[in-house]
Amino acid sequence: MGEPRATPIRIESFGYKYRRAPDADVVFDVRELPNPYWERSLRALSGKDDRVRAFLDAQPRARAMVKKIARFVEHRIRGGGPRHRAALTLAIGCTGGQHRSVYVAESVAERLAADYGPISTRHRDLS
């Protein structure tokens, strides 16, 4: 017998102002983080853009949030993963689903990818 297959991880970002959180095993609310929307030069960009990522990377609270969510996922996976589920699905929400939730989803996926393989990300409300 080979090693057990790692639990696939799916991460979806979303905006609370559009509709409720998507179905997920766990939902994280990142609206407490500084909002790049209020920086005129960043408003039209997304959490995938280097300038928005640099803005949020410079925020200790944003870096700490990414680290805490990644640790939570690692703990959950080591504990056996979701029972009777094909994957562990996380939803990460901010107000509009353009900046903070996208940044956190991408950052968590990058942080976990080395140990848990490719992480599936989807940005529901990214325009």
Notes on the structure:
The structure is a single chain. With 127 residues, the protein is α/β, with parallel strands linked by helices. It has one domain (9-123). It is built from three helices and four strands, in the order ββααβαβ. A four-stranded parallel beta sheet has the order 2-3-1-4, covered by helices on one side. Helix 2 (60-78) packs across helix 3. The radius of gyration is 15 Å and the shape is globular. 35% of the residues are buried.
Strand content: 15-25%
N→C terminal distance: 45 Å
User: Which word captures the global form?
Assistant: globular
- Ranges with pLDDT <50 over ≥5 residues? 1-5
Q: How many structural domains can be distinguished in the coordinates?
A: 1
The major sheet is characterized as: 4 strands, parallel
Helices and strands, in order, run as EEHHEHE
Give the number of helices: 3
Strand order of the largest sheet: 2-3-1-4
Structural class: alpha/beta
Mean pLDDT level: 89
Number of strands: 4
Our Rg estimate from Cα atoms comes to 15 Å
Percent range of helical residues: 25-40%
